[in-house]
Amino acid sequence: MESDTWALLQALMSLRKTARLEYPHPRELLAANPYTPPATLAQSIMHSSPLLSELVVVREWLHDSAPSPAALDPGATNGYWRFTRNALLQGKRTGRMGAGLVTELDPDAVNRDGVEEKGLAPDDAAYEKAVLQALYAHVRAGQLEEAVELCRKANQPWRAASIRGALLFQWRAIANEPREVDAMDDEDAADSHQWRGNVRRRLWKKVCSQAAASSSLSPTERALYAALAPSPQTALALKSVARTWEDHLWTLVSLACEERLSAGLAAIERECFWENGLGALEGGSAAIAAGMDAQEEAGVEEWEQEVIQALEGLSNVAVAEGASADNPYHVSQLHIILDRTDALLEAFASELQEGTHVSSPEYTSMTRFFAHLCLFLQMIDMPVSPYATQVILESYLQVLEQAGQRELIAMYAGALGDNAVERYALFLTSLELSADINERRLALTRAREHGLDIERVAVVTAERTIEKAFTILPPAKGPLPFITAMEPPPSEPEWLLVRSIEWTTFLETTYDTALEQANVILRYFLGHGRVQIAKTLLDMLPPELGTLREPEEEATEYMHYRQFFAVWDALARVVECEALEQPQMNKDTRAAWLSDYKTLIEQAREQVVKLLTTDWLVSDAETRAANAKRFRDLVRIRQIYIPELIIRLHSILVNSRNRVPENLKHALLLVNIVADSRYRLYDDYSSQPGRRLGDYLGAVRQAVLAGLEGGGSDPFRILTV
Q: Domain check: are 349 and 422 in the same one?
C-alpha cells in the first residue's frame, strides 16, 4: 500500500508540476473541422478540465495497481458451449432431450424470456461464469485488448465486439489537431487512413445500460456492462461487486470520467458530424452553440463539486475485503487525489502530538512515510506546514535513534539541505522520457530558484537516472556479442540511459562529471555490442568534453572512444565507397573512383594500425586493483572490438587485392602487428567461436593462398614484391 501511494503521488505530482500545454477547445476543433472524430474531441475535453485530467491519471493508477487477472484466466475452450451442444445432439438422436437445457445455442438463449428454468450444461455454465469473472477483472485492470483476446479464445467473438464498443471513434486522417507524437504513437501513413472505434457509441452505451439493469443476467455480467459504460444508471450494478476500498474508488472515478465525457460530447453534438450528421454542417448550429458556453461552464463547475463531494464520501465507505477506509494509506491516497496534502500532514502531526499512533505496529513505517512525504513536497514546492514538518521529522528522528541508525539521524537532522537536493533530484528523475531537453533545462533551473545547489541537483539526477536504467538493463557480462550492421532501435531503458547525460551537460561546471558518466555509459553500450547507440551518445555530448584534461584517466578513456569511432567510421566509408563501383563506369570515372577507394583504404589502415599499437583503453600501468570492474569492462570491450577491427581491416585489404595489388602485402604485414609481443593483441582473442585467434589465422591462410594466384610456390613472395 505504501508503494501504491508513492506511485499515485508521483503520477499526480508529475502532472501538477509540469507546465500544462495549451490545447484547443472542442468547439475550436469543430469550427475548423466538423468531421473531427469523437476520440480527438474527448482528448480536448479532458485537457480542458484539470480535475478530469487528474481523474484520468488516478484511473490509470487504479488500473496498474488492480489485482492481476491472470489468476482468473479460464483457459481456452475446444468449442462454443461444447457440452451443451453435445447433449442437444445426443437428445435428438435418442429422442429424449435433457431436462433443464436450452434448446437453442445462440448467445441470448439462456437469457431469453420464457426459458428461466433452462440453462447450459454444468461444465459450460461453469466456464461461462469463469469467463465473465475474468473479463470483469481485465476491464477493472484497464486491459480491454486482453479482454477481447480472452473472448476470442472462448469462441465468443460477439462479446469481443461488445467490449470493443467502448473505444471512441477515431480517424486520424481527418483529425487535423496538433498531437503529441512519441515512439508508440508514430503510425504508418497507410494506417492513419484507417478509422477505428465505435461510430455509434451513444447507442452502444444505451444498450449496455439496459444490459446492466437486466435481472436476467448474472451480477458479474451486469457489472461487466456497467464497467464498460459507467453511468448513474449502471452505478448500482457496478457498486454491487465492489469489494475493496480501491474498487469503490475506481467505481467513483470511472463514473465521474464517463459522465464528464458524455456531457462534454453532448454539449457539442450539434456541431459534430458524427453526432448530428449533416445538421452539423449547417450554419445555424454554430450560432446555437455560441450561447451555450456559459451554460457548459456552469455544468463543469457543478460536476466538479459533485465529484469532490463523492470523493470525500469515500472516507467512511464500508468495505467487504482489504484495508478499511480509515487506513492511513487510504486516507493519504484520498488527500493526495483531493490535493489536500497540507491538511493531511497537519492532521497526522496533531495525532503524533496526542500520542495516537505510538502503540501502533505501523508507527515506524507510517512515521517514515510522512517524514519522506514532507521532504518530497517541500522540494517540489508544494505547500507544507512548517509546524507539521517539524513534528513529523522530530518523531522520525526518535524512531531512528531507538533503532541505532545514527548515520540516518545525522542526515535528517543536520543535512536536510542535502536531503532536499536528493528529493528534488528524484522528482526530476521521475520525469523520465516525458520531458524534452528544454523542459529538463527549465526544471533544473527551478532548483536554483528554490535555493538548491543546481550543480548538485544535476549530478544527483543524472546518477539516479543512470541507476534506474541499470536496474532494468541486463549487466554487461556473459558471452561476447557479435557486431551486426543493423542494430535494433534503442529500448526505452537504453534511451533513458543515453538521455541521463543531458543533466550534466547543461552547465560547464558539471562537465567533469559528464565526462565520467559518459565513459560509464559508453563502456556499457560497447560492452553489449551496441555501437550505433554509443555513437548517438557521443554525438550528443558537447565538444568541450574532448578538451578536458582532468581527471587524466577519464580524459584518456574518452579520447580512446573518440579514436575508436573515427576508425569505425573510416572502415564504414571504405565499404560505402566499394558499393559505388558500377560495371558501366567509363575510364575516367573508374579512375577517379579507384583513387578515392585507395585513399580511403590507406586512411583506414593507418588509423586501425595506430589504434592497435597504442595501448587502446588498457595500458600496462593499469592494474585490476585500481578499479576491478572498470578493468573487466575495458578488457571485455577490447575482446569484442580488437579482433573485429583486425578481421575487418584484413577482409578489406584482401578483397581489394585485384584493384590494389599491394593491399595483399599489407594484409600479411598486419599479422606481424598481431603477433608482436609489445602490443599483445593475441591476448584480446577468446575461446568463443568467431572470436578465436584461430579464426583470424584461417583468414590469413586464405590470404597466403591468394598470394599464389599469380603463380609460383613461394608463399612469402608477395612480401618481397
A: yes
The per-residue pLDDT for range 300-334, each reduced to its tens digit, is 888 889 999 999 999 999 999 989 999 999 999 99
Residue 606, CA distances (Å) to 218, 567, 602, 717 in order: 79, 9, 6, 23
Contact of 61 with 55, CB cutoff 8 Å: no
Cα distances (Å, whole numbers) of residue 280 to 173, 289, 638, 674? 19, 11, 68, 78
Contacts of 598 (CB under 8 A, 6+ apart): 659, 660
Say which residue the cell 457548459 belongs to: 296
- Show which of 476, 498, 520 is a domain's final residue: 498
Residue 86 Cα distances to 81, 103, 541, angstroms: 9, 12, 70
On whether both 480 and 564 belong to a single domain, the answer is no
End-to-end CA distance of the chain: 79
Least confident window among 205-209, 267-271, 331-335, 566-570:
267-271
Number of other CB atoms surrounding residue 381 within 10 Å? 13
Do 372 and 489 sit in the same domain of this protein? yes
> Does 419 lie in the same domain as 491?
yes
Residue 116 confidence (pLDDT): 57
Q: What does the pLDDT read at residue 605?
A: 92
| 191 within a domain of the structure (yes/no) | no
**Are 473 and 564 in a shared domain?**
no
- The residue out of 498, 514, 536 marking a domain boundary is 498
Burial of 453 (0-12, 13-18, 19+ CB in 10 A): middle
In a domain, 680, yes or no: yes
Between CA 114 and CA 102 the distance in angstroms is 11
Instruction: Name the more confident of 470 and 695.
Output: 470
- Asked if omega into 583 is within 30° of 0 (cis), the reply is no
Range of the domain at 637: 549-568+613-719
> How many domains would you assign to the chain?
2
Residue 653 lies in a domain: yes
State the alpha helices, DSSP H only, in 618-707. Answer: 628-655, 662-675, 693-707
Q: Provide the pLDDT for residue 399.
A: 86
Rg of the chain on CA atoms, in Å? 34
- Taking the C-alpha atoms of residue 312 and residue 331, their distance in angstroms, rounded to an integer, is 10
- Give Cα separations from 312 to 72, 244, 335, 428, 555 (angstroms): 32, 17, 9, 31, 59
- Claim to verify: residue 453 and residue 350 sit in the same structural domain: yes
